[in-house]
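Input record (Table S2, row 316):
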Amino acid sequence: MDKSSLDPALIEQLKKLQQKYAVMGQDLSSYLDGLLYSDYLTYWDYIHLDTLLSLQNPKTQFPDEKVFILYHQITELYFNLILWEIEQIAEKEGIEEPFFIARLDRIIRYFQLLENSFSVMVEGMEKDQFLKFRMSLLPASGFQSAQYRLIEICCTDMVNLVHVEFRESMMEYSDIEQQVSHLYWRSGATELASGKKTLTLQQFEEKYMKTFMDTGMKYRTKNLRKIYHENFPTSPEVIKRLRELDMLSNVLWPLAHLRSAGRYLHRDPDDIKATGGTNWQKYLPPRFQRIMFYPELWSAQEKEEWGKAAVAKAFS
Ligand code: HEM
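Output record (protoporphyrin IX containing FE complex):
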């Protein structure tokens, strides 16, 4: 073939491109000019590495604060991946079982990674440093993770997130606003001494309550529990995965998290100051919260033993 002539396969590609652009009333030639002048893509630009690595800004001089910030950011990125999978499930028209299962498997994998990596917090920082730098971060807390709350809202019906005291009495068809007003975590973050809402909770509600309400309304017909009941109510493979997700999200991750609170805040009663004064020993343990996304998938005994370490292990 003459070196100056164009490969016929290339001409074919150009024709297809021309058609593609013509459909939108665009001139291919101008776009080819753009291609001529643009730079090659690099890894660091694509990943926005410089921006990513500019987002860790410790408030103190303690080196372990960087571990603390980075691990929270890593967790939020995984939360974002989980929400991304949930959104794809919720938006899928005519959803079929293999699609649902593949996405549930991804969500489960992300939660497993989060559970297994919590040792970065539990064992990966010096306690003395933690207790000092934590005081500079008040009243901020992981409690204010909006993505964590959004995952909960998208995984189940709002009634299952109501504080355990009121849950039984609130039927599934009760007003969503009423359910939102009794969300378990809203009564969890109260001051030890006065029983009043902590500043941590007040600020969180101010910033995000509208988002949570809107998401609750949007997902009341397409949260994971609804999708399961409407499409695959008897599928053993789906049920197996929903149980796994429930256990990871509401027992195993919370227990891994609780271990870090236990390690850093347990012994000295003064340490409780570092949490802004919440009664976290009474609030955080899954056996007290009793949050289950899919209560209908657990036996009476399994529910009774919810959050006990032995049960958690048996299902891990
Ligand atoms: C040394 C590490 C950590 C300690 C000591 C700790 C401690 C606590 C405490 C005491 C609470 C109760 C609320 C409060 O008093 O602020 C809490 C809540 C929470 N933290 Fe952490 N935390 C740690 C790491 C993390 C990480 C890495 C995340 C990931 C985003 C996280 C996410 C959460 C969430 C979502 C809640 C609310 C849980 C619920 O409402 O059931 N925490 N944490």
